[in-house]
Amino acid sequence: MSVTLYGYWRSLAAYRVRVALNLKGIPFEEISINLAGGEQFGEVYSSLNPQHVVPLLKHNEFEIVQSLAILEYIDDVWPQPQLIPGTPIEKAKIRALSLITIADTHPLIVPRVRNFINQAWDLGEGEQTRWSQHWFTKGNQAIESMLIKLGESKAYAFGNEVTIADIALASHVIGAKLFNVDMSTAPTLQGIFENCMKLPAFANAHPLKQPGAPKVS
Questions:
Q1: Does the predicted TM-score (pTM) go above 0.90?
Q2: Of the residues 79, 100, 127, the one at which a domain ends
Q3: pLDDT for 215
Q4: Based on the domain organization, do 175 and 132 belong to the same domain?
Q5: Helix and strand numbers, DSSP H then E, in the chain
Q6: Which of 36, 185, 196, 213 shows a CA-CA span of 20 to 30 A to 15?
Q7: How far apart are alpha carbons 84 and 151 in whole angstroms?
Q8: What is the three-class DSSP state of 85?
Q9: Banded model confidence at residue 197, pLDDT cuts 50, 70, 90
């Protein structure tokens, strides 16, 4: 078995994949693609992923992109512990909660978006930070409201077992904290995050613990 993750230390999407691999106990090699240095546009990585983003998972001869697709692939190939359990409606709920951040919030704050708004409207770092904080806050509100409506959270979003929803929510909170977003308005989400970070699979995958990350005093 050969598993290689192409990621980058600060990528929240790569974080999600790291957590899933850790939870399954799957040994993997991670190859860092320096997004800040433009390595994603080089010939080698462009041939792997023409979209020029991470993560990309290589398993034997297969190459899979997009974090949710990778998470579902991992759960299908290595089914224990199951990360998308239940009936069709239960699985749909798990995916829907995950997508609030994977599809709605996270895409708005990635570097290529912030770089574009800087180039198009001359929005400097301070304005870009406020942009990111705004969308993380909106994501917090949507996630917190959905968790309350579903009414299924205990230690984690759907009871006492980890699902891909918890992986997605943990990545969201990590991103929000990196942008100094006030989490006090999302206590349910914050509690789930704290429980997740007690697990080595989540804690060891943290962006700031990866090679290349800045040292935190």
A1: yes
A2: 79
A3: 81
A4: yes
A5: 9, 4
A6: 185
A7: 18
A8: coil
A9: very high
